[in-house]
């Protein structure tokens, strides 16, 4: 989050690059659906079906890619992904054996939890760590708050608010209008071609007190090309209401997903599907949502020790206070983080997660 300003600037620069034709006949586009090695790439307003050259699937939803045309099948342009452009960030899950790319070039990670079924602290915490590790703001959408079980879940979420997480309460099914009124100002932004609406706000940092300052038309008024809306990656365990959220925000999203999975997957079931949905709102703002599969585990084996440590906001105030400059905050004498753990400022659950993430990454 501390690099929000730089990211916003990089963001503007990256988005200045519109679709271009290179000398070799290749074109630039954006991956709007990733399904194993199959991709749907939006090139100059048309949706192409593309494959990568290698066996590995290395592009993610939201990536800018260079593609070469390969004719058309059933009027759908076909292409090959030749190159993935440099990305601002990449969200992925990993264990020791493989990686699952979720999305690239995201501006916010939206994590859906609910009053019931019971959400997993481990998964929520890992999603927050994933966001922190790439300096992208996270938003927790707390759904089904009309249920009698909501106070228990609210109490559990309070510990996340204490470490700085932003939480929005909604009833996506029971009260969709209020949910939209709360979420759209946080998630929408200027449509492509629209001038920035707010001259004062300058970045997509979520650390400000005003929720309305988060990425919503909050681009500085400079001379660079106007930015399209921020890209929101939606994550959630099964049953929390992720599909309900995506369909409320983008009417027709379910049908689009169905259509793409039928075309790209030809009946095979894969779980690596992610899709970018876009909509223009009545007020002219635009909304970009990446829908990803529900998950039951969130491996972060790719993180470095430094990324893991930095992803715990409640450690920060203590990091300078350890006796050893290279303290790992595990059992070292004179460790300020362990002191804060003993004193109750850091919870045992969070410190256990810290240790587990180091272990998962092979760093213990
Ligand atoms: N009571 C209540 N139920 C809701 C609300 N929002 C969604 N649901 C229900 O919660 C269930 C799960 O919602 P989905 O949107 O399918 O959840 P999901 O997270 O996409 O789950 P998967 O499809 O399994 O990945 C459905 O039966 C919804 O009708 C709400 O505001 N209140
Ligand atoms: Zn320490």
Can you give me a brief rundown of this structure?
Pfam families: RsgA_GTPase. With 364 residues, the chain is α/β, with parallel strands linked by helices. It has 9 helices and 13 strands.
How would you sum up this structure, described in words?
The radius of gyration is 21 Å and the shape is globular. Strands 1-2-3-5-4 form a 5-stranded mixed β-barrel. It has a two-stranded antiparallel sheet with strand order 6-7. With 364 residues, it is α/β, with parallel strands linked by helices. The chain has helices at 4-16, 121-133, 150-162, 176-187, 242-249, 253-265, 305-310, 336-343, 348-360, and strands at 27-35, 38-43, 46-52, 64-73, 76-84, 90-94, 99-104, 108-114, 138-143, 166-169, 231-236, 273-280, 286-291. The longest helix is centred in the first third of the chain and has 13 residues, at 4-16. The two termini are 27 Å apart. The structure holds guanosine-5'-triphosphate (GTP) and zinc ion. The site of zinc ion has 7 residues, from α8.
Characteristic terms for this protein:
364 residues; alpha/beta; OB fold (Dihydrolipoamide Acetyltransferase, E2P); Ribonucleotide Reductase Protein R1, domain 1; 3 domains; five-stranded mixed barrel; two-stranded antiparallel ribbon; 13 strands; 27% helix; 24% strand; globular; binds guanosine-5'-triphosphate; binds zinc ion
